[in-house]
Design a protein that fits this description.
With 461 residues, the protein is α/β, with parallel strands linked by helices. Among the domains are: 140 residues, Methylthiotransferase, N-terminal domain (Rossmann fold, 3-Layer(aba) Sandwich), CATH 3.40.50; 120 residues, Transcription Regulator spoIIAA; 56 residues, Nucleic acid-binding proteins (OB fold (Dihydrolipoamide Acetyltransferase, E2P), Beta Barrel). It contains 13 helices and 21 strands. The longest helix has 26 residues. The radius of gyration is 23 Å and the shape is globular. The structure holds 5'-deoxyadenosine and iron/sulfur cluster.
Length: 461
């Protein structure tokens, strides 16, 4: 397959790295995966070569997540491993990127392992900071920007399957959910110019990719107006989705994440109109209790959420719906928790990401509310939520048994090289015999068995 062409344009001299090796690890959300690809592009442009082997590398970077405490703890663990590398090879440069860099700033430099701290809007300065660190100067850049979208940088794809890719369409978040650290670590919301998004997707298509996921913290509020264009030239998310879908009918289009308060009918009608826009909406509810939703500052009620679900089902009857749920938010009562379980049953989610509440420093919840649900109770409630979701996921997969789906093959199945795995339009993983197919092919698969996590099927010729 043709290699991704890097058309990054920025002022870093192309010789900073001069063949030095870069190793990068990524934690957290899909946004971070895409950011690491942007970082790789910036570093390659500056002359670095990437390696998968940390003991080979001159520069070790870790792209981090702060959304829950355990995500940060994992990174501290990795920094211990990097410290050992540095003990053996004192010239190695260690850098922390992403949300933890933005949140902790200088504090990260204190333990002596870390040379660089670079926040999500400052990646263009990385080559310069690395050069400074090589001459013994620890570097920090955690400036947040109102404009930076890395719009001109073609991410160097690290997903390796060559079939599916993430494309950032916006950065930051203007919501202020009481529990969430993201608005502090990723700054204000800004949309990326539509033209550059379309160009990036065209390049992906030329390079053989068959699926893109448009990414943003709140994609429904995407809005781009080309300077000088008339007002009716404003590109909303619904329009962007349409423009991407129109690029090629064989390109699958996904998006994440939608905020229930901004999920418009226009997006639903666009999804219904284009068969290559996948029938899947990730609509994080967080809680089923109005009292908790208000305290979380989510900007919608249980009733509004259920009305949106009803509208999705009306306009796209076959749409998969998934969600995020937080168990044990401040002051959550047994009744609030019961409301969450009831709502889950009512919606019948196809899948969910479920977490216990983790207090994040300086958020509104940390400043104003008591984290008063004891850890053991949070765990018990979370386990109940997970057990219910397992039942719902199994029921959803059982409903698919006997049906035939178009599956986009992504790679060999974990259990055997004689099988491929891929995803249905509903974003469910399906495993099926290879039967001469390869990653990137669309395969008609009839589902014969399932678990709560996977569909298993046969190829229909
Ligand atoms: N504690 C637990 N879960 C959280 N999330 C965000 N912040 C927290 C927190 N402080 C979850 C939300 C969000 C997902 C990305 O992470 O469910 O939708
Ligand atoms: Fe955090 Fe809420 Fe923004 Fe999502 S919408 S990133 S949960 S503040």
């Amino acid at each position: 397959m043709e290699k991704e062409t890097n058309y990054a344009r920025f002022s870093t001299p192309a010789t900073t790295g001069r063949g030095k090796r870069l190793y990068i690890e990524t934690y957290g959300c899909q946004m971070n995966v895409n950011d690491s690809e942007v970082v790789t592009a910036i570093m390659q442009q500056a002359g670095f070569i990437t390696t998968d082997n940390m003991s080979d590398a001159d520069v070790l970077l870790v792209n981090t997540c702060s959304v829950r405490d355990n995500a940060e703890q994992r990174v501290w663990g990795r920094l211990e491993v990097f410290r050992l590398q540095k003990q053996r090879r004192p010239d190695v440069i260690v850098g922390v990127l992403g949300c933890m860099a933005e949140r902790l700033k200088e504090e990260l430099l204190e333990n002596g392992t870390v040379d660089l701290v670079v926040g999500p809007d400052a990646y263009r300065s990385l080559p310069k900071l690395v050069a400074g660190a090589e001459s013994g100067q620890k570097g920090i850049n955690t400036l947040l920007s109102r404009e930076e979208t890395y719009a001109d940088i073609a991410p160097v794809r690290t997903d390796k399957n060559g079939v599916t890719a993430f494309v950032s369409i916006m950065r930051g978040c203007n919501n202020a959910c009481a529990y969430c650290v993201v608005p502090y670590t990723r700054g204000a919301e800004r949309s990326r110019p539509a033209k550059t998004i379309l160009q990036e997707v065209r390049t992906l298509l030329q390079n053989g990719y068959r699926e893109v996921t448009l990414l943003g913290q709140n994609v429904n509020s995407y809005c781009w107006k080309e300077p000088g264009a008339p007002d009716n030239g404003t590109v909303t998310f619904a329009r962007l989705l349409e423009l991407v879908a129109l690029l090629d009918p064989s390109l699958r289009v996904r998006f994440s994440t939608s905020h229930p308060k901004d999920m418009s009918n226009a997006v639903l009608y666009t999804m219904a109109m284009y068969p290559n826009i996948c029938n899947h909406i990730h609509l994080p509810v967080q809680s089923g209790s109005n009292r908790i939703l208000e305290k979380m500052h989510r900007g919608y009620s249980r009733e509004h959420y259920l009305e949106r679900i009803a509208k999705i089902r009306e306009i796209i009857p076959e749409c998969a719906i998934t969600t995020d749920i937080i168990a044990g938010f401040c002051s959550e009562t047994p009744d609030d928790h019961a409301q969450t379980l009831l709502l889950m049953r009512k919606v019948g989610y196809d899948a969910a990401f479920m977490f216990h509440y983790s207090e994040r420093p300086n958020t509104k919840a940390a400043r104003q509310f008591l984290d008063d649900v004891p850890p053991s109770l949070k765990t018990r409630r979370l386990n109940e939520i997970i057990a219910l979701q397992n039942q719902l996921s199994l029921a959803s997969n059982q409903r698919d048994t006997g049906k035939t789906f178009d599956v986009l093959a992504e790679g060999n199945s974990k259990r055997s090289d004689d099988f491929l795995f891929g995803r249905t339009s509903h974003n469910k993983v399906a495993v099926f015999p290879k039967a001469g197919f390869k990653p990137g092919d669309y395969v008609r698969v009839k589902i014969t068995e399932c678990s709560s996590a996977t569909l298993i099927g046969d190829v229909v010729k």
